[in-house]
Amino acid sequence: MSKKSLFVWFLLVCIVVGVVGVRFGWFFTTGWSGSVVSVGGLPPAGATGAELFYGKGRCGLCHTVGIERGGKCPSLNGAGGRLTTAFIYEAMTSPSAYIRLDFSFAEPRAYSAKMPAVNRAPIGLTEEEMQAIIEFVGAIQ
Predict the structure, then answer these.
(1) Whose CA is closest to 103, among 84, 133, 83?
(2) H-run or E-run covering 28
(3) CA neighbours within 13 Å on the CB side: how many for 71?
(4) Helix H or strand E segment including 36
(5) d(CA 49, CA 137)
(6) For 77-96, what is each residue's pLDDT tens digit?
(7) Measured between alpha carbons, how far is residue 53 from residues 4, 11, 12, 29, 85 in Å?
(8) Nearest to 97 by CA among 79, 82, 83, 110
(9) pTM for this prediction
(10) 36 phi and psi, to 5 degrees?
(11) Which among 140, 139, 135, 117 has a CA at the least distance from the CA of 52?
(12) What are the residues facing 109 on neighbouring strands?
């Protein structure tokens, strides 16, 4: 194998490890505001709802914002216009209470919740952190 092909393979492995590492919280990354967010650990003091959504809350691992499709769970595009704060809170703390297919206005059907309750381990968001995320999701148009 030539030095050039070894370098290309090394570069490819570094890129894959970097992308996967950021996705699963192995590294620090920056939020939309440019401030440092610990994806896998505690957020810095005064963290915003967006930083918590993509950081400690790990919501962005499954839910998408700004992308029509692609996440494991329903996209939150337009959530501010179709979801109440009470619904978002209940979805975060008791995901099995009721689940609507794609969060549409259809009658609720029984689905098994794959989303963990974010106020308990392993995520363990505080009430203040959940409120910040609810405000962030409620502002998504």
Answers:
(1) 83
(2) strand 28-30
(3) 19
(4) strand 36-38
(5) 8
(6) 888 888 899 989 988 998 87
(7) 41, 30, 29, 13, 15
(8) 110
(9) 0.58
(10) -75, 135
(11) 135
(12) 99
